[in-house]
Design brief:
Layout: H1 2-9, H2 19-24, H3 31-38, H4 40-48, E1 53-55, E2 59-64, E3 67-72, E4 75-76, H5 78-82, E5 95-100, E6 106-110, H6 111-127, E7 136-140, H7 145-157, E8 160-163, H8 170-180, E9 184-188, E10 191-193, E11 196-198, H9 200-208, E12 216-220, E13 234-236, H10 237-242, E14 253-254, E15 258-264, E16 272-277, H11 279-293, E17 300-303, H12 310-322, E18 326-330, H13 341-349, E19 353-356, H14 358-367, H15 370-373, E20 382-386, H16 392-402, E21 409-412, E22 446-449, E23 459-465, E24 475-476, H17 480-488, E25 494-502, E26 508-513, E27 517-520, E28 523-526, H18 527-535, E29 540-550, E30 554-563, H19 571-584, E31 593-596, H20 610-617, H21 632-642
Parallel strand pairs: 5-18, 7-8, 7-9, 8-15, 9-12, 12-13, 17-18, 17-19, 19-20, 20-21, 30-31
Antiparallel strand pairs: 1-4, 2-3, 4-14, 5-6, 10-11, 15-16, 16-24, 22-23, 23-25, 25-26, 27-28, 29-30
Helix pairs in contact: 3-4, 6-7, 8-9, 11-12, 14-16, 20-21
Bound molecules: 5'-O-[(S)-ethoxy(hydroxy)phosphoryl]adenosine.
Length: 644
Amino acid sequence: MSQSIETLLNEQRIFMASDEFRVNATHSDPDIYKIAQSDRLGFWEAQAAKLDWFSPWQSVLEWQRPFAKWFVGGTLNASYNCLDVHLPTDRRDKAALIWEGELGDVRTLSYAELHDEVARFSSVLMARYGIQKGDRVTIYLPLIPESVVAILACARIGAIHSVVFGGFSAQSLIDRIHDSGSRLVITADGGYRRGKVIPLKDIVDEALEKCPSIEAVVVVRHVGNPIHMHAGRDDVYQEIMAETSDLQDALPMDSEDPLFILYTSGTTGKPKGIIHTTGGYMTHAKYSTQLVFDLKPSDVYWCTADVGWITGHTYLVYGPLANGATVMMYEGSPDYPDKNRFWDIVERHKVTILYTAPTAIRAFMKWGDHLPGMHDLSSLRLLGSVGEPINPEAWMWYYTVIGKNRCPIVDTWWQTETGGIMISTLPALSPMRPGYAGLPLPGIEAQVLQDSGVPIEAGGGLLSIMSPWPSMARGIWGDNERFKSVYWDTFETYFAGDGATVDDDGYIMVLGRVDDVLNVAGHRIGTMEVESALVEFEGVAEAAVVGVADDLKGQAILAFVILKEGVTPSKELERAAIEWVGKMIGAIAKPKQVVFTPDLPKTRSGKIMRRVLKSVANGQALGDITTLANPEVVDFLERQLNSV
Ligand code: WTA
């Protein structure tokens, strides 16, 4: 790791967008930074004013650290701003969504069609299920158009959506339903992943045995597999939608009414339900999508994230639709049926903007240049990266092989908690440097701080957002104390949990998490979540989990496990333990390897020295181990790791 940071720090290459790109870009006035700085709140008001409000706000910001209220007193509707606003324009009959299934089927919905589908589903939610403003609705769907419909239908009536990624297990679904107190689940019979059916409805059935708050389940018929329908509880989406032609109007929401909860991993075993509200979130979603991606209604914009993650919320649904673009959506995996699937999609649908993750880019690099080489990628005009640091090699590959040296790359740093992009170059305005996210967006004040909280002019430290911004999290569902302690106890300002460097030009390079959160293929996974799952596995006495550097995924999970007395370690047991974690959390959390050990490195007071485990796992120097009570275990672990 430290070696790769060194290499990154020596990265001097600089790239600029072409004159052609700059001439056509919506935001090409460098004064935007100055304007935002000289009157930050006024600048945000100007961005908010680009949304359609039912009634104006009385004050821009009420800040009672750490709780912000933006555009207080204003009313608006997020679904209205994504759909209804386009109906009187020539975007009405333009594609809002182009969806391609893994099997190759394509569905296109115009803005008018998407509007009608959403408005009809809102009416079903209200009339049939009595869903009202403030009720929580859990969405557990594959990446199909109905996931966008469900999200916007909730927003339309003020129901708070809680989307759970379709790769999460029944147990994870249970935890999130319990915590949010959802009344309804929207799911599908199944989804496709690499040609296989993921039986989502079966997983929901298993989960609902333990979820008394759920009154009803709406099941989208997607793959057509046999499923069990519980009479009186479950309905088929297509059937109940066919029964009504009522179109529900978008209801006025207060700017601070919650729009959604999204669960994300932290350093304890319990995921945090991050709350976002309506006015501020939508302001930043619309603004940042246009600014960072130079998004225009003429674009075919493809964000490859699943709606189960924040990227899918802000940059697949709310941001691009608020800007009237055509959103490309692809259900499946990038290597199905072949490893050129992405490039085939770009070519056939003439995708102009591609927003994906470094883990995918590294996989494409490994698969070979000949695959994109087989396709006409000339429709592309801008590329984006998100989710984890992009190493300069991957950046250069993306730039030359995919972008053919003519598409600017935006490396966007942000988090579930920030709601939208905080740091990125602006394609027509700032030079691009591989490995650097760039400058905070106009309106955002981000800095790198020393441990003491003092800003660093140039060098490395901890990333912090220095003043409130419209799309900031409003809290953790049901646990505001945790919200305070996780994000606001370290500094006076927002503590992001990431390490970063800043250079003389103010360019920020994000290095990754400084806490016990792993970033596996761009997904946040708490070490404690995996450890809690492992100790529930029969025969396990104790477990410690660390991240190891992984060429493709950025990080992979390595678990050290102490077995109970009398339990014998074996390959089968390792495999079973890995499967168990998959069952408890989801496939993304499966350790790459489980190392059975009689002991773990501990301090004399019995605390596991995770730092030592990390060094051992990554083959690095151990540093100071004078407080280690049992140095012999380190030799043992090193031998174990070297033997595989
Ligand atoms: C990491 C995803 C480096 C970071 C939008 C952050 C990044 C966590 C970048 C949030 C980037 C995201 N460069 N690291 N461009 N983007 N991260 O909540 O560690 O799923 O704290 O939000 O991803 O992950 P989350």
